[in-house]
């Protein structure tokens, strides 16, 4: 080798900014993608993930700026650092995509998900379910003599934990929205 | 003042405003209103192809040979699905084309109407972008945006699906200047800090090499000029991918020839042994890198590309520069000059000495002594006899394509049209038609294999009808040669379905279409036959009967590194290991 040694991390476009791109560690990243709210845009994003073999762990989408016709897609994906870099670059190429933010690396962020749980049962199990729901600050949004529907908002981990606890108590159905996420602070 | 008109008229108006001179197409029920408008004007020429796939390849040939977008018009359903191969081809090779498809009327979409297909759904993954236009008021604006997207940043194919009722309805025409395009504006200026680091590396590098690609051609004439200036000024060697041939002239003193799987020995060894690799608009394709782990193991790598997703996709580089080749080259030259035009003279002299040693291997040598024409000889003669001409070459896909890349010399960009990324057999003939449309007086030759050529041979009708004097130079080995070569190397010489049987008599075939046919089998007749082809004023099928079992060398077996190149038949035994065998 000659004297051509250079420091890593020379460009904002490089995976070298983040960490060793050859590292084989699998990371989970939450991406916020701002897109034109037009026909087919979600299909483009999903098609990109399936066509190139990337993972989608969670995906939410809704219009966030009615006047500007902009939607926000929040994707939670997993991959090695270089795959995550590719995913962001590939998303950025889609013509109706305006911005791609990697909330996992751009600073602290908050992530929330809403879930509904249907729990059926009687007697002690029913009381225990209600008690745990209170501890988790889940709301009862429907009840019959044999069932509850709880509503809970929280991190995906908290929702997982609550579902685990409800399972032996008669959990029959769960509906989750997927993650919505925002960066913290004023920026 | 806004102009009001039907959607069909808007299409023609928008094409005219975009400076379109030629449309390649094929009519059908869902585009009849547009065809009616085409009938009533004289500015835009319509070339009636014989198959929609050919319309797209013709548009690609037109685009690649002019730098302008190619335009296609086809009907719904089967018209659109026939265009899919061409769209995918253009996507992989970054060719700007605009495809207009007819669609069933909006109120019938989703009913499995006659000739209905989900065209935007089918073509979403094979276009850079596509649109279904449901309101006539939006049509003109969408058309203008489509041209902008196709030609801006990394070029590519776009498609606009236009339901028939939208063509009939009346709406307001939007002027191109009033069309919003600001959202899609890819970055063209490179990061000057990284460019400066690259220049610093260029000043001290002992074994530098420029690795140029299709992006230099995409970028345009300024990029080629600046590349030539920088190469001359630094004295660095330069190699190119299949897609970048002609950006640096083959007669230039720094030229190493093409690199990659069938690239030249000196080019591949220079890539393997360099200490500074400067990639300009190439994408580290697997035909180039071979085994990634052993790809140019000791070099510092810089990569200039307008598409951020090309960078660090396959090979990780120390100096990534997102930007347009021409803009970045301009900055490189400016910074390099301002810092005193330094290069490592001593290192370079040693490097060139090493390269000269590699050149002595003479990897393209062949022996034309027998009574059969060697394909390499046919191309060497074609090169010699067409050298002074205003010449454009297209190719089909296979061995002949690689030989054409090796034995023909390209002095200028946009003179070489080939299907690189998708490797589409059937590309070359229609592409030659598109090229000839753009350059009516030029000598346009499609170097073909007989198998590929048959895939779009119906286009003889188009060539004859529009008096396009395209020359179909078929290297006829009666084999699917490239497949046969792989079967020889990889599958124990079991030649499963890799020969061309029941071939037509190409001379009679030409005559049946009203064109000229020439056959040549004797090396002694070859020059005269080629001259006859060149001098004939009209389309020619040249059936050149060549050696049937010739293999294309050099060859880097798949999965091998650059320094494990095969140079001739003697070295091919067990050349491809189990790991390489799963690769294509
Ligand atoms: C049978 C067969 C054998 C082959 N063997 C070989 C071989 O031996 N050697 C070989 O080289 N190829 C070979 N190929 C072709 C190969 O498959 C690829 O198509 C080719 O190598 C890609 O060329 P490229 O890297 O120049 O990229 P291209 O496909 O031309 O891509 C261009 C790159 O430049 C970028 N770009 C575009 N515009 C600009 C701009 N304005 N500024 C900056 N960047 C820009 C794009 O984003 C892209 O990354 C073969 C193909 C076939 C069918
Ligand atoms: C549409 C399509 N089908 C299949 C292939 C696979 N393929 C690559 S080269 C080749 C043989 C081409 O034969 P020919 O055109 O005669 O050229 P030669 O290799 O003999 O020069 C085939 C079948 C392809 N590239 N494209």
TrEMBL record, chain A:
UniProt keyword list: Amino-acid biosynthesis, Branched-chain amino acid biosynthesis, Transferase
Domain ACT: 30-105
GO molecular-function term, one example from the UniProt record: acetolactate synthase regulator activity
Keyword Transferase: yes
Coiled-coil regions listed in the entry: none
Top-rank taxon: Bacteria
GO cellular component, one term: cytosol
Pathway in which this enzyme or protein is active: Amino-acid biosynthesis; L-valine biosynthesis; L-valine from pyruvate: step 1/4; Amino-acid biosynthesis; L-isoleucine biosynthesis; L-isoleucine from 2-oxobutanoate: step 1/4
Enzyme class: transferase
Enzyme Commission code(s) on record: 2.2.1.6
Catalytic activity: 2 pyruvate + H(+) = (2S)-2-acetolactate + CO2
Protein role: Catalyzes the conversion of 2 pyruvate molecules into acetolactate in the first common step of the biosynthetic pathway of the branched-amino acids such as leucine, isoleucine, and valine.
Oligomeric form and interacting partners: Dimer of large and small chains.
Assigned protein family: Belongs to the acetolactate synthase small subunit family.
Protein name (Swiss-Prot/TrEMBL): Acetolactate synthase small subunit
Native species: Actibacterium lipolyticum
Lineage: Bacteria, Pseudomonadati, Pseudomonadota, Alphaproteobacteria, Rhodobacterales
Encoding gene per record: ilvH
From TrEMBL, chain B:
EC number: 2.2.1.6
Domain Thiamine pyrophosphate enzyme N-terminal TPP-binding intervals: 5-120
Gene3D superfamilies in alphabetical order: 3.40.50.970, TPP-binding domain
Domain (Thiamine pyrophosphate enzyme central) ranges: 195-331
Co-factor binding comment: Binds 1 Mg(2+) ion per subunit.
InterPro entries: Acetolactate_synth_lsu (IPR012846), AHAS_TPP (IPR039368), DHS-like_NAD/FAD-binding_dom (IPR029035), THDP-binding (IPR029061), Thiamin_PyroP_enz_cen_dom (IPR012000), Thiamin_PyroP_enz_TPP-bd_dom (IPR012001), TPP_enz (IPR045229), TPP_enzyme_TPP-bd (IPR011766)
UniProt keyword Secreted present: no
Pathway(s) of this molecule: Amino-acid biosynthesis; L-isoleucine biosynthesis; L-isoleucine from 2-oxobutanoate: step 1/4; Amino-acid biosynthesis; L-valine biosynthesis; L-valine from pyruvate: step 1/4
Group of enzyme by EC: transferase
Domain of life: Bacteria
Catalysed reactions listed for this entry: 2 pyruvate + H(+) = (2S)-2-acetolactate + CO2
Protein name: Acetolactate synthase
UniProt KW keywords: Amino-acid biosynthesis, Branched-chain amino acid biosynthesis, Magnesium, Metal-binding, Thiamine pyrophosphate, Transferase
């Amino acid at each position: 080798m000659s004297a051509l040694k250079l420091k890593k991390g020379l460009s904002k476009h490089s995976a070298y900014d983040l960490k060793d791109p050859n590292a084989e560690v699998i990371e989970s990243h939450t991406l916020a993608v701002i897109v034109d709210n037009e026909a087919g845009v979600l299909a483009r994003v999903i098609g990109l993930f399936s066509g190139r073999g990337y993972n989608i762990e969670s995906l939410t989408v809704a219009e966030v700026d009615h006047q500007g016709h902009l939607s926000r897609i929040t994707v939670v994906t997993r991959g090695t650092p270089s795959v995550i870099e590719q995913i962001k670059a590939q998303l950025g190429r889609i013509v109706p995509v305006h911005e791609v933010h990697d909330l996992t690396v751009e600073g602290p962020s908050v992530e929330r998900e809403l879930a509904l749980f249907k729990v059926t049962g009687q007697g002690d199990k029913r009381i225990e379910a209600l008690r745990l729901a209170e501890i988790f600050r889940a709301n009862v949004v429907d009840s019959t003599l044999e069932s509850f529907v709880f509503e809970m908002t929280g991190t995906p981990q908290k929702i997982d934990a609550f579902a685990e606890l409800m399972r032996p108590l008669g959990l029959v159905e769960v509906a989750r929205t997927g993650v919505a996420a925002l960066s913290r602070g004023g920026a | 003042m806004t102009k009001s008109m039907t959607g069909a008229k808007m299409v023609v108006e928008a094409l005219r405003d975009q400076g379109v001179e030629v449309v390649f197409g094929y009519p059908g029920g869902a585009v009849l209103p547009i065809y009616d408008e085409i009938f009533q004007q004289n500015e835009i020429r319509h070339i009636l192809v014989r198959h929609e796939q050919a319309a797209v390849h013709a548009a690609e040939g037109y685009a690649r040979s002019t730098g302008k977008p190619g335009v296609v018009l086809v009907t719904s359903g089967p018209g659109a699905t026939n265009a899919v191969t061409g769209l995918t081809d253009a996507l992989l090779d970054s060719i700007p084309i605009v495809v207009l498809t007819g669609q069933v009327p909006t109120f019938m979409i989703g009913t499995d109407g006659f000739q209905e297909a989900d065209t935007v759904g089918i073509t979403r993954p094979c276009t850079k972008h596509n649109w279904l236009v449901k309101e006539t008021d939006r049509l003109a604006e969408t058309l203008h945006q489509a041209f902008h997207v196709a030609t801006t940043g990394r070029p590519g194919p776009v498609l606009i699906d236009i339901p028939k009722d939208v063509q009939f309805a009346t709406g307001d025409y939007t002027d191109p200047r009033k069309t919003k395009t600001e959202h899609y504006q890819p970055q063209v200026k490179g990061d000057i800090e990284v460019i400066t680091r690259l220049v610093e590396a260029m000043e001290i590098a002992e074994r530098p090499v420029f690795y140029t690609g299709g992006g230099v051609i995409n970028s345009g004439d300024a990029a080629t000029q600046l590349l030539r200036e920088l190469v001359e000024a630094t004295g660095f060697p330069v190699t190119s991918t299949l897609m970048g041939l002609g950006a640096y002239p083959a007669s230039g003193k720094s030229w190493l020839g093409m690199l990659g799987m069938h690239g030249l020995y000196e080019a591949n060894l220079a890539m393997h042994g360099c200490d500074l690799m400067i990639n300009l608009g190439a994408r580290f394709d697997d035909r180039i890198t071979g085994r990634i782990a052993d790809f140019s193991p000791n070099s510092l790598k810089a990569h200039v590309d307008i598409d951020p997703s090309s960078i660090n996709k396959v090979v990780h580089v120390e100096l990534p520069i997102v930007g347009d080749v021409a803009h970045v080259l301009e900055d490189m030259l400016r910074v390099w000059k301002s810092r005193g035009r330094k290069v490592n003279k001593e290192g370079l002299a040693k490097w060139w000495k090493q390269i000269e040693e590699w050149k002595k291997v003479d990897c393209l040598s062949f022996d034309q002594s027998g009574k059969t024409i060697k394909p390499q000889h046919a191309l060497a003669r074609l090169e010699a006899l067409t050298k002074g001409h205003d010449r454009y070459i297209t190719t089909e896909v296979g061995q002949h394509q690689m030989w054409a890349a090796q034995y023909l010399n390209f002095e200028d960009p946009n003179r070489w049209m080939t299907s690189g990324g998708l490797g589409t057999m059937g590309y070359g003939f229609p592409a030659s038609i598109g090229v000839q449309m753009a350059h009516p007086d030029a000598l346009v030759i499609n170097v073909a294999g007989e198998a590929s050529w048959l895939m779009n041979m119906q286009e003889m009708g188009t060539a004859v009808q529009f008096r396009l004097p395209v020359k179909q130079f078929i290297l006829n080995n009666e084999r699917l040669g490239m497949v046969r070569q792989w079967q020889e190397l990889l599958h124990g010489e079991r030649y499963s379905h890799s020969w061309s049987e029941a071939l037509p008599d190409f001379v009679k075939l030409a005559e049946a279409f009203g064109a000229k046919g020439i056959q040549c089998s004797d090396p002694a007749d070859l020059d005269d036959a080629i001259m006859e082809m060149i001098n004939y004023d009209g389309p020619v099928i040249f059936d050149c009967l060549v050696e049937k079992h010739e293999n294309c060398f050099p060859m880097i077996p798949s999965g091998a590194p650059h320094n494990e190149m095969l140079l001739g038949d003697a070295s091919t035994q067990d050349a491809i290991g189990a790991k390489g065998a799963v690769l294509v």
